[in-house]
Amino acid sequence: MNLTVRGIGRLLTMTEPALPDAAVVVREGRVAWTGPAAKLPPDAPEQVLDVEGACVVPGFVDAHTHLVFAGVRRDEFVARLAGQPYDGGGIRTTVAATRAASVEDLAALALGRAATALSNGTTTMEIKTGYGLTPDDELRLLDVIAMVGARSPLRIEATYLGAHVVPEGRDRESYVAEVIETLPAAAARGARWCDVFCDRGVFTVDEAHRILSAARDHGLGLRLHAEEIARTGAAALAAELGCASADHLEHVSAEDARAMAAAGVVGVLLPTVTLSLRSQAWGHAAILRDAGVQLALATDCNPGTSWCESMPYAVQLACLAMGLSVDEAFRAATLGAAHSLRLDDVGHLGQGARGDLAVLTAEHEADVVAHLGGRPVLRTIVGGELVN
Ligand SMILES: [Zn+2]
Q1: How far is the CA of 246 from the centre of ligand 1 (A)?
Q2: pLDDT tens digits, residue range 215-245?
Q3: Residues 278, 42: contact at Cβ < 8 Å?
Q4: How far, in Å, is the centroid of ligand 1 from the Cα of 268?
Q5: Residue-by-residue DSSP string for 54-78
Q6: Ligand 1 center to 32 CA (angstroms)
Q7: How is domain 3-58+348-386 classified at the CATH fold level?
Q8: Ligand 1 mean position, distance from CA 29 (Å)
Q9: By the 8 A CB rule, do 56 and 8 touch?
Q10: What are 60-99's pLDDT values in tens digits?
Q11: Domain residues of the chain, as ranges?
């Protein structure tokens, strides 16, 4: 798709300093030119979108979601509001509802959430399985993820998270073995990544090590839910294995963070989880930043601990509660998140990048952070095509 976007009051490409009075040319779905509007090439595409002074940023990359699920977790949420702590157990409630839903119903539910994400400027999204927890149910969720990728303009990265929680009534040793045995089928059904919920009461560091080592042997990239409920050594494991990302990290230590930085592990921050759990765990972003860890942001969209499809909302919380600067938060929501998925052609608007753009409702990205409860994104463009 060819498109000229003009009237850009402020353009963030993430590869160059912010540019005032700019334009973007997309040819065949890729960024062909960015620069001052006055220097727009004469042969720029005739299909024009005039954004009338708005700020334009790369489409957001949501690096961590559990988008495919059925049911709600109302009782658990209300109990948490009354003071009950989160122990990961509510995942089983969603597993029961998800197993009971048809593939078509699950796809329809996920597509509704994908539409909400798109309307909030997300153009690339990682989606995990993890609410099936039998080989057949997990592979079925990979089929649903593929359907979302085929039926939505979103670019999808699929992750196999069979090791989300040990299912009820299962012996953990045999379940870990089953997850490992399912890896080749998961890769064949479209998974590009493997993830493990490595935490207190869920999977141990040793179990995560075995699962992720086997996943690497099957050609899958590695991600890890780490140090969310308690510090268990998961972040150090992510560094040891060279995972692309370690996510959550509320209880990460400075030593863990230095190991992550040295190994190039991207730290994925999920501030909407901290808010939903009312855990007040906001300090880890500074620990990671001080150690030189590249930061990413994500929604962790799931029915229990972060019912949120909005990357601008994650950006707001990252700034207001975690203390990131506006520039750091937008970078984490675009370029950092793309790096956590090892994608080099999204999350920025350098030449040759995918023509994925979010047109903000404000003339400056800081206004989107400051304006609570407003509508942050006016238009979303994927591959040079207006999708919202
Ligand atoms: Zn998660």
Answers
A1: 11
A2: 999 999 999 999 999 999 999 999 999 999 9
A3: no
A4: 10
A5: -EEEEPEEE--------S--HHHHH
A6: 35
A7: Urease, subunit C; domain 1 (2.30.40)
A8: 31
A9: yes
A10: 999 999 999 999 999 889 998 998 887 766 888 899 999 9
A11: 3-58+348-386, 60-340
CA–centroid distance, 64 to ligand 1, in Å, is 6
Catalogue the E-assigned strands of 164-301.
193-198, 221-226, 245-248, 266-269, 295-297
**β-pairing, 193-198 with 155-163?**
parallel
pTM for the model? 0.97
Number of other residues whose CB lies within 10 A of the CB of residue 85: 10
- Protein residues within 5 Å, CB atom, of ion ligand 1: 300
Ligand 1 centre distance from Cα of residue 24 (Å): 35
How remote is the CA of residue 259 from the centroid of ligand 1, in Å? 22
DSSP 38: G
Cα–ligand 1 centroid distance for 299 (angstroms): 9
Q: Which CATH architecture has domain 60-340?
A: Alpha-Beta Barrel (3.20)
